Automatic annotation (TrEMBL):
Annotated ranges, domain HTH rpiR-type: 20-96
Protein name: Transcriptional regulator
A Pfam family hit: HTH_6
Region Disordered, residue ranges: 1-20
Leader peptide range in chain numbering: none
Matches recorded under PROSITE patterns: HTH_RPIR
Residue stretches of biased makeup (Polar residues): 7-16
């Protein structure tokens, strides 16, 4: 189970939390952060509503790092120390600290946390340019390899299932090992120009290595990850963040799944024969009696 989401207090406004998370994300972007600092940044984005109220000790405990690491993180962002960073957060993103009144049980809290993740994703999609650019890259790649290992394999498989209805050649890469590089090479030899990756925690080392290899082979890498500070960030040409839920024993990935569908829509917009392919599939499915409805 990732993070410290179980039992997290509800904030007074989902919209306010989404806005605070977006502002935090913007604050952290453009800084070269170490893996430990990215972990702190990720923790703060996930806890955006309460982040301005944490002490350095509390934040260190939540992120699973040392207190001096939190201080160095604040300095890396250009502040004199953590108190200055916290003061800045309170000034630019004021929000009421959440209060857990016991009105929601842990299952309901997990659902509400996912709703917050979706609101955050909606706020990020206010600028459609990155998704539109990703759609162009994916549509032009023939073949299009789609990578997703371990926890992310379901996201990659779901995208591939639907993408094959409109794209002429989509190749699912859902198994690691020594054959993974061979399959990347095969896609490049066949004319592939881009790779789509779904990367979710915990991030397998072989995913990071595969993306590094793919870029070295000449592929443009589009990545859907749980955070802009994920380990795959430095190995992606275009990273689209969508947070995962951590309130249950196993992470939930509603936002990454929805972002995958948004990417499908953007890709369809760049494929002139997408609608014709869908209509052909529907006609054949009817002829075969494929569906019970």
């Amino acid at each position: 189970m990732q993070g410290n989401g179980r039992g997290t207090a509800e904030t007074s406004s989902s919209e306010g939390v989404s806005g605070a998370a977006a502002r935090l994300q913007k604050l952290f972007e453009g800084h070269r952060l170490t893996p430990t600092q990215r972990r702190i940044a990720h923790c703060m984005v996930r806890q955006a509503g309460d982040a301005p109220f944490y002490s350095s000790v509390e934040l260190a405990e939540l992120a699973g790092v040392s207190q001096p690491s939190v201080t160095r993180f604040a300095v890396a962002l250009g502040f004199d120390g953590y108190p200055a960073l916290r003061r800045h957060l309170r000034e630019v993103a004021p929000t009421e600290q959440g209060a857990d009144d016991g009105s929601y049980n842990e299952y309901q809290q997990a659902v509400h946390a996912e709703i917050d993740n979706l609101r955050h994703l909606a706020a990020l999609l206010a600028d459609p340019a990155p998704v539109a650019e990703a759609g162009r890259l994916l549509a032009r790649s023939r073949p299009l390899p789609v990578l997703g290992l371990r926890a992310a394999s379901a996201q990659a498989a779901g995208f591939t299932y639907f993408a094959r209805k409109v794209h002429p050649d989509v190749r699912l890469l859902d198994e690691g090992g020594t054959m993974l590089a061979d399959r990347v090479d095969a896609a490049v030899r066949a004319g592939g120009t881009a790779l789509l990756c779904f990367a979710l925690p915990r991030h397998p080392r072989e995913v990071v290595e595969a993306l590094e290899y793919a870029r070295g082979a000449g592929l443009r890498v589009v990545t859907v990850a749980d955070s802009a500070f994920a380990p795959v960030a430095h190995h992606s040409d275009l990273l689209l963040p969508a947070a995962v839920g951590t309130g249950l024993a196993f992470d939930t990935a509603c936002a990454p799944m929805l972002l995958g569908r948004v990417l499908l829509e953007a890709m369809c917009d760049e494929l002139p024969d997408a609608q014709a392919r869908l209509e052909e599939f529907d006609a054949r499915a009817t002829e075969r009696g494929l569906f019970a409805e």
